[in-house]
Amino acid sequence: MKFGKVGGDGDGWGKASRDVSEQRFLTEPRSRLGELLRVVRIGVEFIKGFRALHFLPPCVTVFGSARLCEDNRWYGMARDVGAGLARAGFTVMTGGGPGIMEAANRGAKEAGGLSVGCNITLPHEQQPNPHLDRFVEFRYFFVRKVMLVKYSYAFVVLPGGFGTMDELFEAATLIQTRKIEDFPLVLMGTEYWRPLLAFFRESLLAHGTIDAADLERIVVTDDVAETVALVLAGARNHLGERIETKRKASRWLGEGGARRGS
Questions:
Q1: Where are the domains of the chain?
Q2: Which residue, of 89, 109, 163, 233, is most buried by count of CB atoms within 10 Å of its CB?
Q3: Domain 3-253 belongs in CATH node 3.40.50.620
Q4: Environment class of residue 204 by beta-carbon count within 10 Å: exposed (0-12), middle (13-18) or buried (19+)?
Q5: CA-CA distance, 138 to 188, in Å (whole number)?
Q6: Nearest to 92, CA basis, from 254, 213, 228
Q7: Would you give per-residue pLDDT tens digits along the chain (262 residues)?
């Protein structure tokens, strides 16, 4: 796993991403020693992720497609919401890649905020996002998803594919089952999400596989100001009036905060 600043020691980030360790892990049992070493490696990934992200100011994670280009309307929406969240005092966290992720990071950076990415090593769609102050790169999807959830006080989801759907349902399930607090979950791009919301109402809710309260937790909007206001109100329920972190890094333990200019 790599972690560092973009433009400095992170110049090679995302360019050597054909890591097959997770594929082997999920394909078949290995030797006992091999499985034990795998557990150690996974543990090390968690520890490095914790060390890199622990001292961030409160984050909002923005999910969305890696495949949407700058001329796409939802790219512009993600850029605007990244800027709005940054001005409200949040760190904007994404999966660190291109497309919607890049747009949200770009907006945060342009607004003078802190922009962070949690990347996954894959054989494609891994061009570096140049708008990151800090990034962490993971081999394992499940470790990365923990990091994207653990440090966030809200989730903003823009149009995306299988990966975005996975992240949306992961966040929704954790909120539904109270594994995490009832943080804001906002879908942006009303036209895109309309068929999925209809499925929620006409199938899931109609057949009783979710409750009305589960659906009511999801806010759908195209309004950036409304999204930022919802996120800010939700975060203040947990953080109080000031959006800040009180954790301090220990130089003796080699810790460092991922802050602007660090």
A1: 3-253
A2: 109
A3: no
A4: middle
A5: 27
A6: 228
A7: 444 554 433 344 344 344 566 566 666 677 888 889 989 999 999 999 999 898 899 999 999 999 999 999 999 999 999 999 999 999 999 999 999 999 999 999 999 999 999 988 876 645 658 999 998 988 888 999 999 999 999 999 999 999 999 999 999 999 999 999 899 999 999 999 999 999 999 999 999 999 999 999 999 999 999 999 999 999 888 877 666 655 665 655 666 544 343 3
